[in-house]
Write a structure and sequence with these properties.
The protein is 89% helix and 0% strand. It is mainly α. Helix 1 packs antiparallel against helix 2 and helix 3 packs across helix 4. The longest helix has 60 residues. It is rod-shaped and about 95 Å long. It starts with a helix and ends with a helix.
Length: 126
C-alpha cells in the first residue's frame, strides 16, 4: 500500500472523527450513527497505520493488492450503513403512514361530533 494512500486514509479518518464530534456537539447526529462512524474511522486509521493488516487480508482473500482490499472494505462498510439507513427509512415510512391514518380517523370523528352538536343546536333553537 503506497505512502500517499496511507496518508490520505489517516487524514480522512481524522476528518471523519472531528466531523462526527462536531455533529454530536450540535445535536445533529444520533449516538447510534456516531458510534458507527467513529468505529469506521478507527478501522480505517488502524489499517492505514498498520498496512500489514491490509496485506494479510488481501492475501487471505486472494485480492491482487492491499489498496484494492482497502477500497473493497470501505465500500462494504458503506453498503452496510446504506442498508441500515434503508431499514430505518422503511420503519419511519410505516410509522408515518400509521400516524396519518390515525390523524384522519381523529379528524373524521371530530367532524362527526361537530355535526351532532350543530344538529342539537338547531333543535334547541327551534
Amino acid at each position: 500500500m503506497s505512502l500517499i494512500l496511507r496518508v490520505a486514509l489517516v487524514v480522512a479518518s481524522v476528518c471523519v472523527f472531528f466531523f462526527v464530534m462536531k455533529k454530536i456537539r450540535r445535536a445533529q447526529l444520533n449516538i447510534d450513527d456516531s458510534i458507527y462512524w467513529i468505529f469506521f474511522a478507527t478501522l480505517i486509521l488502524v489499517v492505514s497505520i498498520f498496512p500489514q493488516i491490509a496485506i494479510w487480508a488481501s492475501e487471505l482473500l486472494d485480492i491482487q493488492s492491499p489498496a484494492n482490499f482497502v477500497f473493497l472494505f470501505i465500500s462494504f462498510m458503506i453498503v452496510i450503513k446504506l442498508f441500515q439507513v434503508s431499514i430505518d427509512c422503511s420503519v419511519q415510512k410505516h410509522r408515518l403512514n400509521h400516524l396519518v391514518q390515525k390523524l384522519a380517523l381523529l379528524n373524521y370523528e371530530q367532524e362527526q361530533i361537530n355535526k351532532e352538536k350543530e344538529k342539537e343546536q338547531t333543535l334547541i333553537e327551534k
